[in-house]
Specification:
Largest sheet: none
Radius of gyration: 15 Å
Helix content: over 70%
Mean pLDDT: 94
Length: about 55
């Protein structure tokens, strides 16, 4: 999931360089959402692994 967030960020940067601000804004929004989902799942997995060790 983090891979796709980085891909959308790169797409947003390329679109911004070429002046496609609408596409860039959409790609940044998708990248942010994917990163937040990744972060929540990573933290949940970390907490779950800590709880399983006990």
């Amino acid at each position: 999931m983090l891979y796709y967030a980085v891909i959308f960020l790169v797409i947003a940067l390329i679109a911004a360089v070429f002046g496609f601000t609408g596409i860039a804004a959409g790609a940044v929004g998708i990248a942010k959402a994917l990163f937040v989902i990744f972060a929540v799942l990573a933290i949940a997995g970390f907490i779950a692994s800590l709880l399983r060790r006990r």
